Amino acid sequence: MPNQPAADDDLPEQIRVRRDKRAQLLAAEREPYPVSVPRTHALRDVRAGWAQLATGEETEDVVSVAGRVVFIRNTGKLCFATLQEGLSLGDSGTRLQVMLSLAEVGEEALAGWKADVDLGDFVSVTGRVVSSRRGELSVLAGAWTLASKALRPLPTLHNELSDENRVRQRYADLVVRETARDMVRTRAAITRSIRETLHRDDYVEIETPVLQLVHGGANARPFRTHLNAFDTPMTLRIALELFLKRAVVGGVERVYEMGRIFRNEGIDSTHSAEFTMLEVYQAWGDQRTIAALMQQVIVDAADALGSRRIETSAGVIDLDGEWAWLGVYPGLSARVEQEITPDTSVGVLRKLAERHGVEIDPGWGAEKLVLELFGELVEPELIQPTFVCDYPPSAQPLARPHRSDPQLIEAWDLIIGGMERGTGFSELVDPVIQRDRLVAQSLAAAAGDPEAMQLDEDFLTALEFGAPPMGGLGMGVDRLVMLFTDAGIRETILFPLLKPLG
């Protein structure tokens, strides 16, 4: 069986040696995993409090510090080690040198250190704060104790994890790579900034069900499950939208949720089966007011990270520049040098797809062909922030018909760096039109479309109680992190879903 523990004889030598050390500690009645150890200062506290020490200067200030051993050098009468502590909002994991000398700790403690401590172990060291002869701030140990014995050797910078194993063993990746720890801090700064922006503008954060009887709010294939208590089929949510709109109907006029959603679809460098979505709904707003909010959310996140200019392989993205608006049909027309309108025939669009090497499905109608052509030919070239707007109705069944052109809807996608980062609508609140749209979706689902929405009678009932005019947005938080870090989605998600080994 693939998860069967290996017999001791089959284990790598390093693991067997470390297990033997653990056994020896227990035999000597020394705890390899004590409940607590001395710790009066974090490593960052020592660095901040004694940063002014001159080279070779010693103090009588005694501290107890603890951390993971990430470097070790044992000599005859003097041992050196570097401890690393966990990351915080302020840094990616401070390191500090500790020194153990025969004169300070005694022969038994020094011998125990050499025999028992390996790279990766957690230790506690108590001693005086000093600066070494080379000017390295250090703790000169008077005593030490093991805090946790590592039974597996850590990868080193000279023998790094492969890209695949870095993702599978993120815990090890975080220990050895500062850039991995930086990603955690960056994502935390972004999500905190999003909430601060919304709270400042009086939005209320709520939580909506993950398990749902009816999947809706997006065109996506759901994960299906079964609720034993009710003997009822259920799905994991594919969007946050429909319950947030119920809240607006009930009077929560500025509402949002940032949470995981689940789509049983392809996985690649920009898509994950589970990811974090932000959805916001604003009573008395529309696609323009909600676009302004989206822009503010992203600019504030950039400020939290320190710069509104983002370096990418496609060029510098300037968030202080113009955030343009581009209609789907005018944008596609300019790209193919031919006027495309909502009345352009399927035959013309198929010829355009063939001419430009865009793969299409023979069953697609005109609106779907326009969306595919735009996505393949125009979207990748939109590097600066662009609100792509005036979509055909089939693009977003939950968006309001355009106030000046019934062949369009009031919806946009925000493209930055050639990739969609979010979407927004003037939300459809007419329950009669919404029913017609959802009936059409349910018929498509019955005909075999796995991504079509189901008919949600309870949502329609909510709309029939009356919903105020509103704008709504959805933004992939992972894709926002990707924008600021120039990393793939597997790097921005701390523990992404991966294909099982074997």
UniProtKB/TrEMBL annotation:
Entry EC number(s): 6.1.1.6
Residue sites binding Mg(2+) 2 per the record: 420
PROSITE patterns reported in the protein's UniProt record: AA_TRNA_LIGASE_II (PS50862)
Positions annotated to bind Mg(2+) 1: 413, 420
PANTHER family named among the record's database cross-references: LYSINE--TRNA LIGASE, CHLOROPLASTIC_MITOCHONDRIAL, LYSYL-TRNA SYNTHETASE
Quaternary structure (record): Homodimer.
Name of the protein this chain belongs to: Lysine--tRNA ligase
